[in-house]
Amino acid sequence: MDARPIPLCNSADLVEGGLAVPFDVVCGGQTCRAFAIRFQGRVHAYLNRCRHVAMEMDYQPGRFFDDSGQWLLCATHGAVYQPDTGACAGGPCRGGLIRIELSERDGVVHWHTDHNLQPVEF
Fold it and tell me: In terms of C-beta density within 10 A (0-12 exposed, 13-18 middle, 19 or more buried), how is residue 97 classed?
């Protein structure tokens, strides 16, 4: 299936270092949670799956940033990830977060499908 943009949220919904916007994707035949954030003015998205053990990372719905707003944390394992790349920055990680391509245009954030990530069909 070709990559295509899927509207996710209004740009204003993603505040610098603030709450994430959650969404569902199909990855490897399973429905998985994902999240989008804004960091240093740019939007980023990842599967909500710690690379230490495949568990959701947020400690409260939509809360991924540490108190400084500079790092993404796994609430269960303490793994630390760079918000702009998803790379492991410390703690028990086995690689970086799985990135989901985003674009932002005319006040709307879109996520992009690829051969591994597809929208959930109802």
Answer: buried
